[in-house]
Amino acid sequence: MLRRRLIAVLLTLLVLFAGTAVSCGAYAAVETGEDRYAGQLMDRYAAEITAAVTDRVERYGDTLTDLAYAIGAQSDLTRDDLNRITAGIVANRLPGASGVGFVVPVPTRNVVSVQRFWRGQGFDGLVLTPLPGVVDHEFVIFEKGFDGRKQMHGVDLTASVQASAVLGIARDSGQLAISAPYYLLRDDEMVAEQKQSSVVLATPVYTGLGSAAPDRFVGWSTMGLRGQDFMSQTLLDRGQGVVQAQLLDPAGTATVLADVAPGTRVADRDLERRTSITAGQRLWEISMWPTNRLLNVTDRGLSRLTLASGVGLTIMLAAVTAVMAGSRNRALEQVDRATAELRRDISRREQVENQLREREDELRYLAFHDQLTGLANRLLFYDRLRHALTTHARGGRHFAVLFIDLDGFKKINDDLGHDAGDTVLRAIAGRLRTGLRASDTVARFGGDEFAIILEGLTNVTDARPTAERIIVDAQEPIMIGGVPARVSASIGIALNHPGSGTDDIIREADTAMYAAKNSGKSRYVEAVLP
């Protein structure tokens, strides 16, 4: 009798141990899947935020460089010339910019003569105010302000260590430079609570570029940027309200330029992301943290449910085993019941395993597809592009990349709201799929940008029918609440060529797309092979 009781106890303990081990293993597997999915989401948001910040800096830098070229191209620069050159530079195209200006270097001994010269060029009443004790000054000759604050005409920028330093860097390097963060001189009259950490962009201005005359440095084109106004909306949009993000200049005292904090931050170091970019010869750092909103979309809690179910099943099995060992007369009956319970347990475990496999497939799909349109995302597109480069290079074959940007989409978002914008993006995604072969790839890059890979082409003319179809299809109205919404498509086409890489083809297609937009929109432009 004692031996039988001991065997029953040992058997019950064995069942409890084994069931607990299996339950813990299932819990760990599900939790790992949840963490992997959350990490993939953070990687995607980190990539999109970093790309968006880089793109915005490059766009502002291009605007300032174009301004420098336009100023340098004038043989006899006047105030009217500067007003005309800057007429197209407006505040709503440059969020966060305080204004653009033209700055010239002036030694102390030349202040009076330089002041007289610029007054003769149309700057009536210009007064250059040199900072005492400074030999070489940097005067603001012209400024187009966007914020209605005090005018900077005649101000000596050597009054700001950061502004003067970035002018020196731009002049020495001959390239765009961005200053260390500081409070703009034009913001001196603001109360401390309203001031923002800001930077100045500077590009050197040369005369004689592109001509037989020698290049001569004459000054700088400048742009002030207030950090929070400049980048906060971009960080919020690209993080889709589920990621907290911070743009930081890590040098010196590590100044925060922009910071967005939607939701509640989750303390999980494995999900934190940090990236660095070089902006105007200066290193910036982008830090990102997950929020409770992000974790809510990863079905957190399924692992705990799995553990609870496993423990429950284990206790049930142990109880059944104990009952079976309690009486020889009911042994067969207890075995039948236990067998039935085991079969149900196996079925439940198979269901859990199937759910795990389905969840893994879903995670894999979400990692490589855009949630809104169901198209391939940027990661999958780059993978397909690398594969196309490899396969087409072996046979000397061609493929084309079509880079597509929607014209008029921002107006729909502004007038009808983001839900209407999402409807338009889904409709355009469906139209882009039409007529493509199984071997072709269509992807959403983000915002209203799409890209297509057309494989197995003879030359660039094979891509034209597809581009023409997309332009026609995009113009068809999209009904939103009974109201027709209309957009059009500007398309850049780039063909692979010897020595080209993924970034080369994307850049060529993107450049061609901007050429299409600048040529009147709703058309395609083919990239010129190098």
UniProtKB/TrEMBL annotation:
Annotated signal sequence range: 1-28
Domain CHASE positions: 140-235
Location in or out of the cell: Membrane
Keyword annotations: Coiled coil, Membrane, Signal, Transmembrane, Transmembrane helix
Domain of life: Bacteria
Keyword Hydrolase recorded: no
Occurrences of domain GGDEF (ranges): 397-529
Coiled-coil features, chain-numbered ranges: 335-362
Protein name, per record: Diguanylate cyclase
